[in-house]
Amino acid sequence: MSQPGDEELERDEEVWTAGGSPLDRAVFNADGLLPAIIQQEGTGEVLMLGWMDREAMRRTLSEGRVTFWSRSRQEYWRKGDTSGHVQYVRSAALDCDADTLLVTVEQVGAACHTGTRTCFDGDPLRVAQGSAPAD
Ligand SMILES: [Zn+2]
Fold first, then answer.
1. Cα(104) to centroid of ligand 1, in Å?
2. Which of 37, 56, 59, 64 could pair with 52 in a Cys bridge, judged by C-beta atoms 3.0 to 4.6 Å apart?
3. 37 Cα to the center of ligand 1, angstroms
4. Per the domain annotation, does 80 fall within a domain?
5. How far away, in angstroms, is 119 Cα from ligand 1 center?
6. Rounded to an integer, what distance in angstroms lies between the CA atom of residue 113 and that of residue 43?
7. Which of 83, 79, 81, 84 is nearest to 68 (CA)?
8. If you measure from the C-alpha of residue 16 to the centroid of ligand 1, how many angstroms do you get, rounded to a whole number?
9. How many domains are there within the chain?
10. How far is the CA of 78 from the centre of ligand 1 (A)?
11. pTM, two decimal places
12. What residue numbers bound the domain in which 49 lies?
């Protein structure tokens, strides 16, 4: 299925992958979306999770900035345009069954809209910790 923007992608395709367009390999859910985990390059911090449709994924892979699809506002949302907390794309990978995207970024400031560095550092839960048995 051809969609606006595919030509631009195909031009860059060889650079990205030997296995065909990642947009065609990506598996989107029934709503046409795929979850994208955003991770800080270098430190490995898991910053946030957002949702992308095909076009948001295309923009993210080709424009150097992370773009999500906002499910609440039903519009594209390029991270940092209003907050200044830009995410510059450094690398990306689909997971083993191609239904989740990992994007490593250079994060400017807080990744979370609440102002914390990551979406996961504000509410640590109590867990029963497990350990691998000693050899
Ligand atoms: Zn958050």
1. 17
2. 56
3. 12
4. yes
5. 4
6. 20
7. 79
8. 29
9. 1
10. 15
11. 0.84
12. 6-107
